[in-house]
Design goal:
single chain, mainly alpha
């Protein structure tokens, strides 16, 4: 007869305490935190509505999935070949359309996928912070993803959720490569970079930052670093060459990434102060006539595109002429306001402007704006204290430089809270390091007082 296992009260208490401590270890607690994020995202899923979309670019992505499933053609907004966006969204949504068709499952299944993808990002944020500060600070950094804007973002079928994951993975594997020569980190970095690129071209600046960091850390000799750069370039060509050839055949132009930048950049010329109003400009003479002359091979005698499938491409190329014309007139009439708008006003406008279009928008946006302002103070403290105390200087300056450069790149195009949301995790990580530096200062102050 099998004996029953019994515990004395003291042993029972000890067992409960050991289980409790086990799950309070940061490396285990991160999964408890992620589970809480999953619950939050499920609640947001039902608050928004399972089939409700944001009526933004997700409308185009869902339509592009249907068109891709039916024709195998990458498109967006219009049913024609496109290089306005990178190919991942039509491909992913197309696969789900093949499975679910026009049913509710099409949108619902994509939302579920987006929620799952979004839950990996805080894990990599935790892993990054744990490399530089105590792990509980990493938990604090990951807990930022409990904010409602991230729960909402993971419930809308836009590029930000997958891009943010692969961007964060690139950053993590950058730091891993700086600490170890293990080739697996290099391979994972390439995979993360390519996946990010397939969703958004913004990741193209990442290899520059990675190379700078690796040079500073001196983990590799110049020869080893050059070899890895060549391997990275060759791996990238696996994507760039077929995509560029496809674009050249379709649009008779060299398009290695996309032709989507002119549209938001044109919208950006209407931001700031002192920009020229449309009624002050002669678009027909300075844009249309010049554009039709330069792109004459694309048009027939009546000024219509010879190939109707090139309408979207030509519209975006025309935007490049509008941008040049508007900026030249702006600089001619009021150069000071142009410089002020692009160097100060546009970047500043998105500094604490949170991206959230979900339930209880007014209240949540006010909360997020307040948190963003506090984060700004913590970031400033991180920079100041790292320079004064000579602690964590490299990581603080690296994250700061990456954030500022990306902020200006985004603001030079179109200053939007949605675009700025993609780089906010850099600020949150910087703010957490700022908290650690402040705590370290307080600890040292108390220690000195006790010794006095």
């Amino acid at each position: 007869m099998r004996a029953e296992m019994r515990f004395r009260p003291a042993e029972e208490t000890e067992l409960k305490e050991s289980i409790f401590k086990k799950y309070l270890e940061p490396d285990r607690f991160i999964f408890v935190l992620i589970f809480l994020m999953l619950i939050e995202r499920i609640v947001m899923f039902f608050l928004i509505g399972p089939e409700v979309i944001s009526d933004s670019d997700d409308v185009a992505y869902l339509a592009s999935g249907k068109y891709f499933a039916q024709t195998g053609t990458v498109s967006v907004w219009l049913e024609m070949p496109s290089a306005l966006i990178m190919p991942a969204m039509p491909f992913v949504t197309g696969i789900f359309y093949m499975i679910f068709g026009e049913s509710a499952g099409y949108i619902v299944s994509l939302k579920i996928l987006w929620i799952i993808i979004g839950l990996f990002t805080p894990y990599f944020v935790y892993k990054i912070l744990s490399m530089f500060v105590p792990k509980w600070y990493g938990i604090l950094g990951a807990s930022v993803f409990l904010l409602p804007n991230f729960a909402w973002m993971d419930n809308v079928i836009l590029t930000e959720t997958p891009y943010l994951l692969f961007f964060t993975m690139c950053l993590y594997y950058t730091f891993c490569m700086a600490e170890s020569r293990d080739k697996k980190y290099f391979v994972l970095y390439i995979v993360s970079f390519m996946l990010a690129l397939c969703f958004r071209a913004n990741i193209l600046s990442m290899p520059v930052f990675t190379a700078i960091y690796l040079l500073i850390k001196k983990t590799y000799s110049g020869r080893e670093l050059l070899k890895r750069l060549l391997v990275f370039a060759c791996a990238s060509m696996i994507f760039f060459v077929p995509w560029t050839i496809r674009n050249y055949i379709q649009f008779n132009d060299f398009i290695p990434v996309s032709y989507g930048a002119p549209h938001p950049t044109m919208k950006g010329t209407y931001q700031g102060e002192g920009y020229p109003e449309d009624d002050q400009l002669d678009y027909e003479k300075n844009v249309d006539e010049v554009f039709l002359q330069d792109y004459a091979e694309y048009f027939d005698g009546d000024g219509n595109p010879k190939d109707p499938d090139q309408r979207q491409y030509l519209s975006n190329m025309r935007n490049t002429y509008i941008i040049k014309y508007r900026l030249s007139e702006w600089f001619k009439n009021d150069p000071a306001s142009l410089i002020k708008s692009y160097l100060i006003l546009k970047p500043y406008s998105v500094l604490n402007w949170p991206w959230y279009w979900g339930p209880y928008e007014t209240q949540v946006t006010a909360l997020l704006g307040a948190i963003s302002k506090i984060n700004c103070v913590l970031c400033a403290a991180a920079v100041l204290l790292s320079l004064i105390r000579k602690k964590k200087r490299l990581i603080v300056l690296y994250l700061s430089a990456m954030y500022v450069v990306n902020l200006y790149v985004l603001a030079m195009s179109f200053a939007s809270e949605r675009y700025a949301a993609m780089i906010m995790p850099l600020r949150y990580m910087l703010g957490i390091i700022g908290i650690w530096l402040i705590a370290d200062c307080i600890k040292n102050f108390i220690k000195k007082r006790k010794q006095a």
